[in-house]
Each structure stands twice: as structure tokens, then as C-alpha cells.
Design brief:
Pathway: Amine and polyamine biosynthesis; betaine biosynthesis via choline pathway; betaine from betaine aldehyde: step 1/1. Belongs to the aldehyde dehydrogenase family. Keywords: NAD, Oxidoreductase. Residues 23-495 form the Aldehyde dehydrogenase domain. InterPro entries: Ald_DH/histidinol_DH, Ald_DH_C, Ald_DH_CS_CYS, Ald_DH_CS_GLU, Ald_DH_N, Aldehyde_DH_dom. The protein is of the alpha/beta class. It folds into 2 domains: 16-262 and 475-494, Aldehyde Dehydrogenase, Chain A, domain 1 (3-Layer(aba) Sandwich); 267-457, Aldehyde Dehydrogenase, Chain A, domain 2 (3-Layer(aba) Sandwich). The chain contains 15 helices and 20 strands. The protein has helices at 50-66, 74-90, 92-103, 107-129, 165-179, 193-204, 219-228, 241-253, 278-293, 313-324, 345-360, 398-401, 417-425, 440-449, 482-487; strands at residues 16-18, 21-23, 30-35, 40-46, 135-136, 144-152, 155-159, 182-186, 212-214, 234-238, 257-261, 267-270, 305-309, 364-367, 388-391, 408-414, 432-436, 454-457, 476-477, 490-498. It has a 7-stranded mixed sheet, with helices on both faces. Strands 9-8-7-10-11-19 form a 6-stranded mixed sheet, with helices on both faces. A 3-stranded antiparallel sheet has the order 5-6-20, with no helix packed on it. α3 packs across α4 and α4 packs parallel to α5 (165-179). The longest helix has 23 residues, at 107-129.
Length: 509
């Protein structure tokens, strides 16, 4: 496996980490990792199974029940998180390149992901170090000392997706460790390499044995076991709605705590007044491209639904199409490439199916809709697909209702503010959305009315580690990042101390 600076000297198949040891799968099975730019294998990992998952959970259980980490002073836990952030900065180039090859994104996107992960570790270190010793509760008597404290939940299992493997892992690992938990993580079997690299850095930073465990393997075996194992206290899952529902059902049988982030179908609402000036028009079009096509649309918060005011629709879409046709597709490691391939042939075929169904249902193809011609930077064997704009769409279309996870933008129109709100909220999901307007009052009004966990006004995609991330409806349960992201990994305990106990005399005898 491609290593990072200071990484361990082990064989390529030892990507399972349990109780401080790097191991191969108990069964001996392996899996090749494919570079989506040319469909060629470039790494080999251990293909773990239920036995490996059981061993990892047992190690995490021992580390929590008997090990030092849950009782480690907050200042020491925070210091370790900061050391991890420093190691990420040290290895930025190598990990960014690994993320690019693994997930197909550009190297610059990979570097930005590493920066964001370092920021997340620093944020949660600062958050826990800045807390007090608990919330004092006034019991109405000087003889009563009452305080609410927060303690780690216990053993946390984490299942992460293929599109942002390093970033999504950090959003779970950093708060879990800050709170004093132990964990087992299962990255996507398609893109596991940077999560393995992150565990290496946790070990290098001095995390005690058994606190951080990783099992590389498929969801239907390893992921299922992490969800239903009786030794687990919390399951955190990021991925698709169907898989997330299965995780929730399995966890419910053991009454485990569950945190689910299940994607979205995110509206990008453009009012005509946002386009009244040349600068405003240029910015709104540019951001619509960014919303829909960054990382080839393989983003849970992708703005794949453009909802534009009718009076500017034709001009807006025409310019959008002109620029979309000029997006430079290619291998993410090549200079000048703006957009990489889809992560797999399966994902490309899924995208093609959505486009075909949209055309059959009456959508008008304005650009894209096919595989590009091969070039030196874009091998014929790679999983590339052209940025696609589908005009004259409506909510009855499957491509408008369901999450595509590909470079596909649908266009709907509205005439009134109420109609824009109705269209934007007409979805089972509610992860994120944006409003473009020159009227600040309208922007704030729209933000209040939209049923989405994040609403951007005159922007798209930025997030802050100190602000909660999560969605309404079928976008999931719970929040990541922010104080609520830390709270997901904690239990509240009320400690009530009577300083002057007396008989109650409730019973006369």
C-alpha cells in the first residue's frame, strides 16, 4: 500500500488494525484497490470479515472498560488531537495524492481535504479543553450540590462512505476521541487507503493500544457486524439511504445510539435579482457549476437541482452550458485537470441510467450525457462522464427525486418566492440548499423557510467545523461537527450530592 512519511514497514495486505497490531484478514482474503482514472489496480488491502470485526470490537471494549483513555485528562486528550493535526500537515502532499488516486478527485481537492481534517482535529481539541467541570444545577438548597457532567458513551463503530473517505472519518474520529471513547472504523471497501493512513498517524501520535481499530472489508459483512454487535454502544454511519436504514434497524435491536448522515437532494435557488449585474450573474453561474460538478457531483451536498427564476432561465442556463462544456476532465494527478472520474464503473452506469430515464420522461439534454473521448490525461479505461445539464425538468422525474451522485444538473423554474420554497422543500431529504438573491431580507426569509440542515445565502458548499452538519427528513439523524457533534459521543450524567443528609420519615414504622 502506498505509505506516508514515517509509516510502518508492513506488507500491503496488513490494513486491519486491532489492539495495537497491524494484521491481515483472518481468512487471508485480499482486495485490489482500483484507480478510477484508468481502472487499474494500484494497491492491495486485507478483505476483513465478521471474525475481524468481532476481534476489533473486543479490543475496543477492553480498551474502554480497562484501559487508560476514558480517564485520560482532557488536556492530554486535546494535546494528542493537536499532534495528529500536526502530522497531517507534515504528510499533506502524500495523503492528498493518495486521496486523489483512491477516490478520483483532483490532487488539489485531496490537499484541501487534508487541511479540513487537520482543522477538525484542532477544533475538537479546543472545544473540550475550553469546557468546564460540568453544569451546576440549582437545587434550591445550600445543602445540595447538583451537577450535570458528560462522559464518553463507550465503544463506537463508524462506517464511512467512498466519496470523502478521509474527511468523513475525521468528523467521527476526532469528536469520539475528544470525548474519551474507543472505536472501530470501517471505511468503504472502494476507497479505504487514507483512513488506514489516518490510523497510522493516530498510532504515531501516541494513542493507547485498542483505542483506535480499523477493519477493511465489505459492508454486508463487516459493516453489518459493526451495527448489530452487542458490545457496541453507538453506531455512526454516513452513506446511502438504503444502507443507512439497514444500519438503523440492526442497531435498534440492541437499543444502541445511532447517528446517520444519509445524503441529500439539494436545491440551488437563483432569483433574477442575483443576476441583475454582470458580476452577480457571473458569480451565480460560477457557483452553480461548483455546486453541481465539484468531485464529479459525488458530494452528499451537491447542488444538483438548479431552481432558477423563469425570467432569467434561458440566459442563465445557456451560459451554464457554455462553461460546463469547457470543464477539463482527466486524471486528478494531471496539471490543469478540473474534474476527475467517477469512483467506479458501477457508479458511472448508475449515472447513465439516471440520464436515460430523464430523457425518457421529457427532459432536454443541453450538454454532456455521454462518456468523453479519451486523451492522454483521460484514458479510455477510466470511469469518466461528461458534466451534464438536463433542462425542463420537473418533480415527477426520478433524476430530480433521487440522489444521483454523478455530474448531473437538473433545471427547474419558478415565478414567485412561494413557488421557489415549495419546489426546494419538495424532497424526502433535507441536507443542504442555497439561495441567490440581492435582497438580504429575502435571503434570510428563504433561509428560515427552507427545511434543510444547512442553508447558504449567496454561496455554496462551505462548512465550518464549529457549525453543526446534518439534515432534516431522510437526510439522517443527529449532527456532526460543532458542539452537537461532540455531544453525539457523550452521555449526560446527573450527580446529586446531599451535604447534610437527614431521615425522610416517609414511613411511620
Amino acid at each position: 500500500m502506498p505509505g506516508t512519511e514515517g509509516s510502518r514497514d508492513v506488507s500491503a495486505q496488513q490494513t486491519i488494525h486491532v489492539a495495537g497490531e497491524w494484521l491481515g484478514a483472518a481468512s487471508g482474503a485480499t482486495r485490489e484497490i482500483i484507480d478510477p482514472a484508468d481502472a487499474k489496480p494500484f494497491a492491495v488491502i486485507a478483505e476483513g470479515g465478521t471474525d475481524d470485526a468481532d476481534a476489533a470490537i473486543a479490543a475496543a471494549r477492553r480498551a474502554f472498560d480497562e484501559g487508560p483513555w476514558p480517564g485520560t485528562p482532557v488536556a492530554e486528550r486535546a494535546a494528542l488531537l493537536r499532534r495528529v493535526a500536526d502530522l497531517l500537515v507534515r504528510d499533506r502532499e502524500k495523503i492528498g495524492l493518495l486521496e486523489s488516486r483512491d477516490a478520483g478527485k483532483t490532487v488539489e481537492e485531496g490537499r484541501v481535504d487534508v487541511d479540513c481534517v487537520a482543522d477538525a482535529f484542532r477544533y475538537f481539541a479546543d472545544l473540550v479543553i475550553g469546557e468546564g467541570a460540568g453544569r451546576v444545577v440549582d437545587a434550591g438548597s445550600d445543602d445540595i450540590h447538583s451537577v450535570v457532567v458528560h462522559e464518553p458513551i463507550g465503544v463506537c463503530t463508524m462506517i464511512t462512505p467512498w466519496n470523502y473517505p478521509l474527511l468523513q472519518a475525521s468528523w467521527k474520529i476526532a469528536p469520539a476521541l475528544a470525548a474519551g471513547n474507543t472505536f472501530v472504523i470501517k471505511p468503504s471497501e472502494i476507497t479505504p487507503l487514507t483512513t488506514v493512513a489516518l490510523i497510522e498517524l493516530l498510532v504515531e501520535a501516541g494513542l493507547p493500544e485498542g483505542v483506535a481499530n480499523i477493519v477493511t472489508g465489505p459492508g454486508h459483512t463487516v459493516g453489518a457486524r459493526l451495527a448489530d454487535h452487542p458490545g457496541v454502544d453507538l453506531v455512526s454511519f454516513t452513506g446511502g439511504l438504503v444502507s443507512g436504514t439497514k444500519v438503523a434497524q440492526a442497531a435498534a435491536l440492541g437499543v444502541k445510539k445511532v447517528a446517520l448522515e444519509l445524503g441529500g437532494k439539494n436545491p440551488n435557488v437563483v432569483f433574477a435579482d442575483a443576476c441583475a449585474t454582470d458580476e452577480g450573474f457571473d458569480t451565480a453561474v460560477d457557483q452553480a457549476l461548483n455546486a453541481a460538478f465539484i468531485h464529479s457531483g459525488q458530494v452528499c451536498s451537491a447542488g444538483g437541482r438548479l431552481i432558477v427564476e423563469e425570467s432569467v432561465r434561458e440566459r442563465f442556463v445557456a451560459e451554464l452550458v457554455r462553461r460546463a462544456e469547457r470543464i477539463r476532465l482527466g486524471r486528478g494527478t494531471e496539471d490543469g485537470v478540473e474534474c476527475g472520474p467517477l469512483v467506479s464503473e458501477e457508479q458511472r452506469e448508475k449515472t447513465e441510467g439516471y440520464v436515460a430515464s430523464a430523457l425518457a420522461e421529457g427532459a432536454v439534454l443541453r450538454c454532456g450525457g455521454k462518456r468523453p473521448e479519451p486523451t492522454d490525461a483521460r484514458p479510455a479505461t477510466g470511469y469518466f462522464y461528461e458534466p451534464t445539464v438536463l433542462d425542463q425538468c420537473h418533480r415527477g422525474m426520478r433524476v430530480v427525486r433521487e440522489e444521483v451522485f454523478g455530474p448531473v444538473l437538473t433545471v427547474e423554474t419558478f415565478r414567485t418566492e412561494d413557488e421557489a420554497v415549495a419546489l426546494a422543500n419538495d424532497t424526502e431529504y433535507g441536507l443542504a440548499g442555497a439561495v441567490w438573491t440581492a435582497d438580504s431580507g429575502r435571503g434570510r426569509r428563504m433561509a428560515r423557510r427552507l427545511r434543510h440542515g444547512t442553508v447558504w445565502i449567496n454561496d455554496f458548499h462551505p462548512y465550518l467545523p464549529q457549525a453543526e452538519w446534518g439534515g432534516f427528513g431522510k437526510s439522517g439523524v443527529g449532527r456532526e461537527l460543532g458542539p452537537a457533534g461532540l455531544a453525539e459521543y457523550r452521555e449526560a450524567k446527573h450527580i446529586y450530592q446531599n451535604l447534610a443528609p437527614q431521615p425522610v420519615r416517609w414511613f411511620a414504622g
